[in-house]
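Please check the following for our workbook:

***
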Amino acid sequence: MKFPKRIGRDDNGAVEGLPLQLIIMVAVAAIVMVIVLGWLAPWKNKIDIDSLTVTPTTTGNNDAVTITVTAWDTKGNHLAGAVIEMSGCNVGTQVLTTGDDGTATFTVTPSIPPGTTNNINIVGKFTGTIYAEKTAFVVVS
């Protein structure tokens, strides 16, 4: 058996087949990557809860107050469908869902011992890409 002096002069095609296999592997990898990215693309459209804003942020003891909670998504828009739970300061546990404008409105009369300060705790929950919770509070004094 005679060995070729240079690889380029090999007439059997063994070396020429290697680049063809690499091209096929790269093409298959590209197709698989397009399929995987296609599956993940809907996640870009999903939103999550980013923050809560509360108005007012303080109130007096035994004062009737209307508290408006606004939920914001990760794109800076109002978040509809967030579950807002309020508790503490003898207001019981109240649960509302934000409307299309991203707000939930509670009317409460907090009650704490005189001369003390406490918080009405507010938790916003939303399941978008992931389940997430955000918290806020209203100071009662």
In short: The chain has two domains: 7-44, 49-140. The chain is about 20% helix and 40% strand. The radius of gyration is 31 Å.
